[in-house]
Amino acid sequence: MNLEVNEFSGAERSVKNHIVEILGVQWPLSIKKIFNRVKKLGVSVTYQAVHKSIKQLEKEGIIKKENGSYFLNKKWIKNMHVKFRDIEENYSDNGVPFCGKTFSDSDIKFFSFNKIFDMDQFNIEHLKNRKRKRVYTQSQHLWWSLFQFKNETKLDIPDPNKIYSICRSKSFVDSLIIEHEKSLNLNVNYSLVPRDNHDIFVVDDKVILIFYPNEFLNKLDKIYSNNKNVLDENFFKVFEEVFNEERNIFVCMIKNRGFSKQMKEVMCDAFR
To answer: If we measure between CA atoms, which residue out of 112, 102, 123, 223 comes closest to residue 165?
Structure first.
């Protein structure tokens, strides 16, 4: 299934490449139509040479014939896709994707705190000094407003009604906190099984967070819910169409031994 053209002269290699490129744009085509399109490219070639190249490509499994016309072999296309993907991976530089964008190191900052209280203060300061009013949070449990509740102090955060929080727990304490935060004009809701929009990979000392757009997740939910037979050809057709669509997928890679160790320990709990 490889495009082995080394055995031919330079002219023959060029003709074969032109044929593949032509059939990559329009198909199926007869030999005569392929010959005319090759000539339009300004290539000096005879009909017999084009005929010979087409037969060679067919023998190698690169093109197929049906009803007297030719088209690229889909198996060969997939094989080439895998090969170029491997080449792309080989050309990746220090884990930086060949086809993606790299952001400045200043765009990624890593912080470590020794106390939950200190980490909370860090987040609260961000809430106080934020430039955009609307904020979204997702937590296993809510707690930071407990301190205001205990000390009977006011919430010193601007525009609390623009803060939207999701709590994964419906415990008694969480229920109290939710009611308290609602009284402070915060928007808080339960969501026992919120859909995560990210995947996590922990490799060596690196934690890789992959964030998917909501429209992709909605399409994936629909595909997984509405298909009962994964062997169905239409299932893979729709599946591949969704995965080949252009969209923004943001990836955050953090290299930190302590953080990666902690994430590994959390994930290992699922296998104990």
So the answer is: 123
Contact 159, 184 (CB under 8 A): no
Evaluate whether 157 touches 137 at the Cβ level (below 8 Å): no
pLDDT in tens, 207-252: 888 888 888 888 877 876 776 775 677 776 777 787 778 888 888 8
What is residue 42's three-state secondary structure? coil
- Asked if residue 170 lies in contact with residue 190, where contact means CB atoms within 8 angstroms, the answer is yes
Confidence label for 28 from pLDDT (cuts 50, 70 and 90): very high
pLDDT at residue 58 in the model: 95
CA distance 121 to 144: 9
As a whole number of angstroms, the distance between CA 111 and CA 122 comes to: 10
How many residues does the structure list for the chain?
A: 272
Question: Which of 220, 217, 224, 166 is closest to 192 using CA atoms?
Answer: 166
Residue 143, pLDDT score:
77
User: Would you give the DSSP letter of residue 8?
Assistant: S
41-80 per-residue burial string, b: 16 or more CB within 10 A, e: under 16: eeeebeeebbeebbebbeebebbbeeeeebebbeebeebb
With beta carbons less than 8 A apart as the criterion, state whether 36 and 17 touch: no
Q: Please check the confidence at residue 57 and state whether its pLDDT lies above 60.
A: yes
Global pTM reads 0.50
Using CA atoms, how far residue 141 sits from 128, 151, 188, 189, in Å, is 21, 20, 12, 12
- CA–CA dist 224, 200 (Å, integer): 21
